[in-house]
User: Fold this.
Amino acid sequence: MSQGLWAAAEPQTPPEATTQLPPLSQAPPQTAPSVDLNQYTGKWYEIAAIPMYFERKCVANTTAEYTQTTSGEVSVFNSCEKSNGKRLSAVGLGRIVDPQSNAKLKVSFLNLPLLGWQFWASGHYWIMDVAPDYSTALIGHPDRKYGWILARTPQLSTETLKALSQKLVQQGYNPCDLITMPQAGGLTSKQPLCTLTGNPTGAATQP
Assistant:
């Protein structure tokens, strides 16, 4: 949940991804008008994301689990599978910075002995879109350096992926920047999201 699932770092963007869309608007992405944290908490599967430095060892089955604390913050437990089959995990804490919508958080993964969580080292976590039944979510960053598609299940239909891809385009993202995450029971390889949706620029697909 630190800018998505892991701590803040520069994304590793595929070299072909930045040429397929016009220049991004300077305005930041729009966030969801309202997020019910009781419904949002729980386990999410990473379907696709702009790869981050701290995810470089993740080869499959990346998940995030969120739990509300008694103080109104959100505890974060991120994990993924490494090439040797072992799990890599990270624990963080999210603090709501927009209490009117609950859609903007800052998340820290730096917890110092005696000093506690250090939010000067936190990252932006913006909930741009969440399905009415909280089955999917789009997570972004004000500078669009990061982006995630999360789901309650390890697999989404092609139609759902296309719809979410279109929403990313409307938010100023290039779907080709997002790389899919292999999941048990879901996708089996890493590839640019646009290769699955067949619609790199977000324009209407011909029948």
The first helix runs from residue 37 to 40.
